[in-house]
Design brief:
The complex is a heterodimer of chains A (254) and B (347). In chain A, helix 5 packs across helix 6 and helix 6 packs parallel to helix 7 (180-196). Chain A is built from ten helices and ten strands. Chain A has a six-stranded mixed sheet with strand order 6-7-8-3-9-10, sandwiched between helices. Chain A has a four-stranded antiparallel sheet with strand order 2-1-4-5, with helices on one face. Chain A is of the alpha/beta class and 254 residues long. Chain B is an all-alpha fold and 347 residues long. In chain B, helix 9 (186-204) packs across helix 11 and helix 11 (222-246) packs antiparallel against helix 13 (263-298). The chains are: A alpha/beta (254), B mainly alpha (347). At the A-B interface, helix 2, strand 6, helix 4 and helix 6 of A face helix 12 and helix 13 of B. The structure holds adenosine-5'-diphosphate (ADP) and magnesium ion.
């Protein structure tokens, strides 16, 4: 049984725009699935449906054998808690310390008042430091999150996601605001988490060079529809033009 | 879907049309009334004639004529205000003319209504009076300084306590008053709208009116002043706080939600950290404003320096009034500088 199963998924925003037009695919546990597609093709919308930051308007999403398409409240929070997410703009809490930012990854499993008073248990603190060590940034634990460089902030965001001990990790263009060498460092951490911890990764990416290097499988979206599902090595020139249109060559050069 | 949106747009335009006609009717009535009741009698140097059916007829027909231009030619200030299309060319010229007519009528009418009189302002007798009061104010009687300082302390702390009491209330209210927090459900939207309306009404009632109410309720004194300020401060701070909340970066909200956090945790860990500094800044500024307002409120029974000032003014003891004026000016000025400095440092 696949870890994640998506069937005929549609999403229409309140303004009437249909961003996803019936998408179906499966993800096996342990895969590193990369989602590609032009800007506006629906990649972010898809990811946000998977951890139910938004509610799909049609189709079904099954995660770990459970239908999560329309869950709410406690089951929804539990579902989100099992899935870590990192973002293009890191989305750390500015002014708060790196360690606290990582601890916030455990909010799904701590008492509301305990957390608000900052009373995180010793065990959680140890785990947070451990997560920071995984991304090689433990020495910054006391620093304000907004004082770090972009690459460092993204590593803290990964540590925050690890704090959830997630079954699956979603990454929405995690390297789009980073320079090439930092990009590789961040992607390497994601790869390590995938390989060493066996965490399933679904990652939106823009650049094909990165896709070939890190993906075990690729799906491609175009105008809210799935137009490719296969191995990264099967993306031929022809596919490439279908997905990216006439600008294909430019995209590859980068 | 498409049909619904078309319908909505239609309703929207219809509402704007109606609003623009109402505006034009009111504007036309104002202009004609100013001319008929104020400007013409003044030019003829007679008292305005009795307000009767004749005047009503003139004003109503003027208003209708004014609005009719808008309906027939598409040329009206109401259409301009509501964002409706005003055709290029002649219609634009007509709108410009209408605008100038309205402005001119308001300035001339206003001049007459407010009794503006350069003659009184500059007459010998008038200047003598001015000399007397300025003389008294500039030779303050410092015997009252002890009493004045004590009253000033009362005013400052009235403002301070009003701020202290209002801050937690405003903080709690600011979340349900923020669109981005409440827009997630129809119930939320209803609460948001209701709260906004109540707060707007609360803010529209000047603190001085609240002070009059509370001076009857709890008796004249600083407590009445404080209560009046609390109401106004809650209304103002909640608005400022909630606008700040509406302005926060959505990224951290998504990130914290994605960890499985509940709504309260999202508020506390994603929204509040982005708001603390601006909230502090608004609060300090509000205290500064409250000290000024507490002074004014004192005039109608809110205690402190304002009450003392009205007492001496009532006794026509202008030397003492002079001392109080100097003290008020100094305190307001110092607070202004200090609060600006603190707010600057907070950025
Ligand atoms: N909140 C929203 N309301 C309306 N339309 C949206 C919203 N968010 C995204 N869209 C639209 O949905 C489409 C897909 O967006 P997105 O999923 O962000 O694409 P991608 O991540 O591939 O760039 C775009 O055309 C975008 O304009
Ligand atoms: Mg996107």
């Amino acid at each position: 049984m696949p870890l994640l199963s998506v069937r005929n998924l549609t999403h229409t925003y309140p303004n009437g725009f249909q961003a996803l037009k019936g998408i179906s695919f499966d993800v096996e546990a342990g895969e590193f699935l990369v989602v590609i597609g032009l800007s506006g093709s629906g990649k972010s919308t898809l990811l946000r449906c998977l951890n139910r930051l938004i509610e799909p308007t049609g189709g079904t999403i099954t995660f770990d054998g459970k239908d999560v398409t329309h869950i709410a409240n406690d089951p929804l929070r539990k579902h989100r808690g099992q899935i870590g997410m990192i973002f293009q703009h890191f989305n750390l809490i500015p002014r708060h310390s790196v360690l606290n930012n990582v601890l916030y990854g455990a909010l799904g499993s701590t008492g509301t008042l305990t957390a608000m008073l900052g009373r995180f248990s010793e065990e959680l603190r140890t785990r947070a430091l451990e997560a920071l060590r995984v991304v090689g940034i433990a020495e910054k634990s006391g620093v304000r999150a907004d004082a770090l460089s972009g690459g460092q902030q993204q590593r803290v965001a990964i540590a925050r996601a690890l704090m959830q001990q997630p079954r699956m990790l979603l990454a929405d263009e995690p390297v789009a605001s980073l320079d090439p060498s930092t990009s590789h460092s961040v992607m390497t951490y994601l790869e390590r988490i995938n390989k060493d911890m066996g965490t399933t990764v679904i990652c939106n990416l823009h650049f094909l060079s990165l896709v070939r290097q890190y993906a075990t499988r690729v799906i491609a979206l175009k105008d809210g529809q799935l137009v490719f599902n296969g191995s990264p090595h099967d993306i031929t020139e022809e596919w490439f033009t279908t997905i990216y249109g006439e600008d294909a060559v430019e995209v590859e050069i980068r | 879907m498409v049909k619904m949106r078309w319908k909505w747009r239609f309703v929207n335009v219809l509402m704007k049309r109606m609003m623009s006609i109402v505006i034009d009717l009111l504007l036309g009535a104002t202009v004609v009334a100013l001319i008929e009741r104020v400007i013409v009698p003044s030019l003829m140097d007679v008292k305005p004639w009795a307000f009767g059916p004749m005047s009503i007829g003139i004003i109503i027909s003027g208003a209708i004529l004014w609005a009719l231009i808008g309906v027939l030619r598409g040329a009206s200030l109401g259409r301009l205000y509501t964002g409706l299309d005003v055709p290029e060319g002649q219609a634009r010229t007509i709108v410009t003319h209408l605008g100038w007519i309205a402005l001119t009528a308001c300035i001339i009418g206003g001049w007459i209504i407010t009794d503006i009189s350069p003659i009184e302002f500059l007459s010998g007798e008038g200047l003598q009076g001015a000399g007397r009061i300025f003389g008294a104010l500039l030779t303050p009687e410092f015997d009252v300084i002890g009493e004045a300082l004590a009253a000033m302390v009362v005013t400052i702390f009235t403002a301070f306590m009003a701020t202290v009491v209002a801050v937690p209330l405003s903080f709690l209210l600011s979340f349900p008053a923020a669109r981005n927090v409440m827009a997630t459900s129809p119930l939320g939207k209803t609460i948001y709208m209701g709260l906004r309306i109540i707060l707007n009404i609360m803010r529209s009632m000047e603190p001085i009116i609240w002070a009059i109410i509370f001076s009857v309720w709890v008796g004249i004194g600083p407590f009445a002043g404080m209560l009046a300020l609390v109401i106004h401060t809650v209304a103002s701070l909640t608005k400022q706080y909630s606008e700040q909340i509406e302005d926060v970066n959505a990224g951290p909200i998504e990130a914290i939600s994605a960890t499985g956090a509940n709504r309260i945790q999202v508020l506390w860990f994603a929204i509040v950290p982005q708001c603390v500094i601006p909230f502090l800044s608004f609060t300090i500024y509000r205290w500064d404003i409250n000290v000024r307002m507490a002074t004014i409120i004192g005039f109608v029974g809110g205690g402190g320096i304002g009450t003392l000032l009205t007492q001496y003014q009532g006794l026509a003891r202008y030397h003492e009034v002079g001392t109080l004026v100097i003290l008020i000016t100094a305190v307001v000025w110092i607070l202004d500088v200090v609060s600006a400095r603190v707010r600057e440092a907070l950025r």
